[in-house]
C-alpha cells in the first residue's frame, strides 16, 4: 500500500465510507470481486472500453442530477393529474433528483403513447428509496459498484440495510418496497407489478402486456 495507505483510510472512513466496505472491496483480493478485474486485465479491449464508457455515463448522469430541483408548474400539475393524493404524497418525499428522473422517464413514455398505468409506474418506480434515504457517498458508491462489479452489488444487496451494505440493499430491494407503498397508496395493480419488476431480467420474448410495458419502462429508465 505504501504512500497510498493514508489516502485509502481518509477516503473510505468517517464522512466518506466505513472501513468495512474498503476491506470488502480491497482486502480480499481482486479475484473475489466478480467479473470486472479479470475482464479488465485479460479481456478484449472492447470490453474494457465498454466498462469505462459505462462508468463515465453513469457518473455523468449522477452529477448532472445533483443540481436537480423539484418539479413545478405544468410539470407538477401533470403529475398531480396522474397520481392519487396518497401517491402524490409519496412522490413528494422522493429526492429532487429522483423526482426529476422519474418525471423524465414518464414524459418520454407519454410521448410513446404509454397507458396511465405505465406512467404511474414510471413516476413511482424509485419511491421505495425513501424508506432509507441515502447519503451522497452512498449514491456515488452504488453507481460505481453496479457498473464495475454488478455481481457483488447484487450479492451485497441481500439481507437487512445495515452498515456499509445499506446502500446496496436499498438499490436491490427498493422495487419491492416501492410496490408495497404504491399498492397502499391505491395505485392500479398493473402499475404496482411494474414497479415491483422494474429491475427484473426480462425474458427474451415479451408475450403479455405487462412484459411489453415493463420492457418499455426499463429501456427508458436505463437511458435516462
Key features?
globular, mainly alpha, 13 helices, 224 residues, disordered N terminus
Structure report:
With 224 residues, the chain is mainly alpha-helical. It contains 13 helices and no strands. The longest helix is centred in the N-terminal third of the chain and has 21 residues, at 45-65. The termini are far apart. 31% of the residues are buried.
Oligomer: single chain
Helix content: 55-70%
**Outline, from the CA principal axes?**
globular
Task: Work out the number of β strands.
Answer: 0
Biggest sheet record: none
The whole-number mean of residue pLDDT values reads 81
Strand fraction equals: under 5%
Order of helices and strands: HHHHHHHHHHHHH
Helices and strands, with pairings:
Elements: H1 5-12, H2 19-26, H3 36-42, H4 45-65, H5 73-82, H6 85-93, H7 96-111, H8 116-124, H9 136-148, H10 150-156, H11 166-184, H12 189-197, H13 209-223
Quick overview of this protein structure:
The chain is mainly alpha-helical and 224 residues long. It is 67% helix and 0% strand.
